[in-house]
Amino acid sequence: MTEQREAGRSFDQRELRDIMGVFPSGIVVVTADADDPVGMTCQSFLSLSLDPPYIAFAPSITSVSYPRIREHGSFCCNVLAAGQHDLSSNFARRADDKWAGVDWTPSPGGNPVLSGVLGWIDCRLEAEYTIGDHHLVVGRVLDFHSERQAREALLYHRGGYALSAGSPSANSGDS
């Protein structure tokens, strides 16, 4: 007999991760504080509202980078392009040298904008909620920029990097 949980059936976390993994998501690197840069990779990112403009992202409660971002009070979400796997992997690490060899310029709000990204969104931290093993962070959009080049976004799908549907390789049926 399956043990019932408070809000539904019991389940294995690996099974839940597998089903959630079939939903592809874009990848951003959230950065803050151009004077003492901090950054972290995040795939749990979304547009929350256009009027007024808000975004949200969900760092783990065990993140060592997010408390520094919270303390700074503002942040920049850098939307990674296909081919920026190294940046994603670099900022996903728990290391002090994440910024070694990384090209960036400060945003108008004073947060690092990584070179070569598809776009960036500068935000003020508006609200934070702790839900389960993550924080839900809401940011008020203050400024943004989008590269209008015909490049694809870096996606995360089924536990790894993936091509978007607009990619010639993704449409060829070779997968």
Automatic annotation (TrEMBL):
Family statement: Belongs to the non-flavoprotein flavin reductase family.
* InterPro entries listed in its UniProt record: Flavin_Rdtase-like_dom (IPR002563), NADH-dep_flavin_reductase (IPR050268), Split_barrel_FMN-bd (IPR012349)
Q: Which Pfam families does its entry note?
A: Flavin_Reduct (PF01613)
Keyword terms of this UniProt record: Monooxygenase, Oxidoreductase
Q: Does the keyword Oxidoreductase apply?
A: yes
Tell me where in this chain the Flavin reductase like domain is found.
20-163
Indicate what this protein is called per its UniProt record.
Monooxygenase
Q: Name one GO molecular function term.
A: monooxygenase activity
User: What is the superkingdom listed in this entry's lineage?
Assistant: Bacteria
Q: Which PANTHER family match?
A: FLAVIN REDUCTASE (PTHR30466), FLAVIN-DEPENDENT MONOOXYGENASE, REDUCTASE SUBUNIT HSAB (PTHR30466:SF11)
